[in-house]
Amino acid sequence: MKKVITYGTFDLLHTGHINILRRAKEYGDYLIVAISSDEFNAIKGKKAYYSFEQRKAILEAIRYVDEVIPEHNWEQKVEDVQKHQVDTFVMGDDWEGKFDFLKDYCKVVYLPRTVGISTTKIKKDLQLSNNG
Ligand code: C2G
């Protein structure tokens, strides 16, 4: 079984997230998603609208996702890849090059981001529409 892993906050799920999950799954037959915990999000300088439990439940409902694990820190990726016997690590190309150290342990693939959508944009657009 070829296993794939990807990491992220996945807040306010949108088609950019769905695109990367669908394409990540094409690299194998089992996709693990490591979702940032609320505490790690704070370290990343992010405040998710949905809690970790809510984001986990939403991701688990996606057909491309086989397993959801927590992401607690920047350092756990090598251990995750080894523990879960991952063949391919996939991330959006806004992270291009940042995780090349994983090449000693698995294939590393950066995929083009989906243009024109992001959680930040959704929040901003909602704010504008609410302000009338
Ligand atoms: N993404 C995308 N297109 C978008 C928005 C996001 O392809 N329009 C991808 C990102 O490149 C990332 C994944 O969706 O691979 C999740 O994005 P975020 O939830 O913003 O995750 P991020 O904050 O980048 O966290 O250790 C890695 C970090 O946890 C990544």
If you had to describe this structure to a student in words, what would you say it looks like?
With 132 residues, this protein is α/β, with parallel strands linked by helices. 34% of the residues lie in helices and 21% in strands. The chain contains 5 helices and 5 strands, in the order βαβααβαββα. The protein has helices at 15-25, 38-43, 52-60, 77-83, 119-130; strands at 3-8, 30-36, 67-71, 88-92, 107-111. It has a 5-stranded parallel beta sheet with strand order 3-2-1-4-5. The longest helix is centred in the C-terminal third of the chain and has 12 residues, at 119-130. The termini are far apart. [cytidine-5'-phosphate] glycerylphosphoric acid ester binds next to strand 1, helix 1 and strand 4. Keywords: Nucleotidyltransferase, Transferase. It is an enzyme of class 2 (transferase). It comes from Lentibacillus populi. One of its GO terms (cellular component) is cytoplasm.
What's the main sheet like?
5 strands, parallel
Ligand names: [cytidine-5'-phosphate] glycerylphosphoric acid ester
Radius of gyration: 15 Å
**Category from helices, strands and their pairing:** alpha/beta
Secondary-structure element sequence? EHEHHEHEEH
Unreliable stretches: none
Q: What fraction, in percent, of the residue positions are helical?
A: 25-40%
Task: Describe the global form.
Answer: globular
Number of helices: 5
| Mean pLDDT figure | 97
- Strand runs, count: 5
How widely separated are the two ends?
Answer: 52 Å
Approximate strand percentage: 15-25%
Strand order of the largest sheet: 3-2-1-4-5
Keywords: Nucleotidyltransferase, Transferase
Domain Cytidyltransferase-like: 5-124
Enzyme class: transferase
Protein name: Glycerol-3-phosphate cytidylyltransferase
